[in-house]
């Protein structure tokens, strides 16, 4: 879905009802009130596109569908005709009222449930068979992550995104748009481009072109048998500097500190004694640890679209848009990086024995997998999976 001006998502309590009065018209496609671009409100005015979005979801009469951002209901009414139920999650109460009015008094009304609120702030997405959305620009990334992280994700998702974002979904290793998002989507799902959508198909027209994509999460035994948070946690570390080697990414002291914390918890939970003899093997390596992240290699991060310091202007769309859900450690990592960039030197604690053990284990994994010198931007999903399993073998976890 096209972009809108970036702003922090608002809760329902301070939603647009408080600021703008609805004119009360029941006409679905006229400008009933001023569309709020801050909420990504670009209504589809070409019925053919609404039809295609619903058609490409191959809905069955038994399906429960979640639609994110029904707006005035252009896609909703078509989905209601084909599915058992549509749960429409809408941030703007004026829109919630419009979509309700649109089906009032028709047989479709009893199949529609409207939930007012921010889908990203909901503790969990309602279970469903299909997800459809002309997705508001601000929530593209968090919405996909939220869906992929579901233990039982929908069978199919047909989603409209701004073109640049859609390209990132299908990016392959080595592509400039390859990112943590690309790896996750293609690891947990298959993704297919459905169609291009020009800006003239929306009211008001957005600044950029859009694409419809179909994402089919892997289900049941086809779903990879690893925890989402673990795989994603590893990717966050690797793509924090995607043009650096994995060895450099895992030499950052905040990363090692997190591995150490998790390792201690793991050992305690599983009653595993820590083999401190490993500590003696890392004396040399640890002397370089504090500065390894500064530059173990000399590559310039010319294309690092996961680097949160980059600002390519309005059109840029970062994985970090899902920051609200970011685990604490990764917030700390970003804060530490920001402090470093601001020229502040964080205090350095003397290395504990466990820290040395963890450092040795990290080195062992990187050497054994042969991935230490590889850069995240060149790694495919099997490289990351191999790395994750090797870390797990050593008792090192990322969530
Ligand atoms: N589906 C309609 C409207 C799309 S515009 C159509 O295609 O014509 C995007 C809609 O998403 C708007 O109604 C906007 O209010 C809603 N929206 C924006 N952010 C949201 C969020 N975080 N959670 C739920 N709905 C949201």
From TrEMBL:
Its EC number is 2.1.1.-. Residues 49-219 form the Ribosomal RNA adenine methylase transferase N-terminal domain. GO terms for molecular function: 18S rRNA (adenine(1779)-N(6)/adenine(1780)-N(6))-dimethyltransferase activity; RNA binding. Residues 292-305, 313-324 have a biased composition (Acidic residues). InterPro entries: KsgA/Erm, rRNA_Ade_Mease_Trfase_CS, rRNA_Ade_methylase_Trfase_N, rRNA_adenine_dimethylase, SAM-dependent_MTases_sf. Specifically dimethylates two adjacent adenosines in the loop of a conserved hairpin near the 3'-end of 18S rRNA in the 40S particle. It catalyses: adenosine(1779)/adenosine(1780) in 18S rRNA + 4 S-adenosyl-L-methionine = N(6)-dimethyladenosine(1779)/N(6)-dimethyladenosine(1780) in 18S rRNA + 4 S-adenosyl-L-homocysteine + 4 H(+). This is rRNA adenine N(6)-methyltransferase. Residues 1-26, 289-324 are annotated as: Disordered. Belongs to the class I-like SAM-binding methyltransferase superfamily. rRNA adenine N(6)-methyltransferase family. Keywords: Methyltransferase, RNA-binding, rRNA processing, S-adenosyl-L-methionine, Transferase. PANTHER family: DIMETHYLADENOSINE TRANSFERASE (PTHR11727), DIMETHYLADENOSINE TRANSFERASE-RELATED (PTHR11727:SF7). SMART domains: rADc. S-adenosyl-L-methionine binds at residues 42, 44, 69, 90, 118, 134. Gene3D superfamilies: 1.10.8.480, Vaccinia Virus protein VP39. GO terms for cellular component: nucleolus. Pfam families: RrnaAD (PF00398). It comes from Parathielavia hyrcaniae.
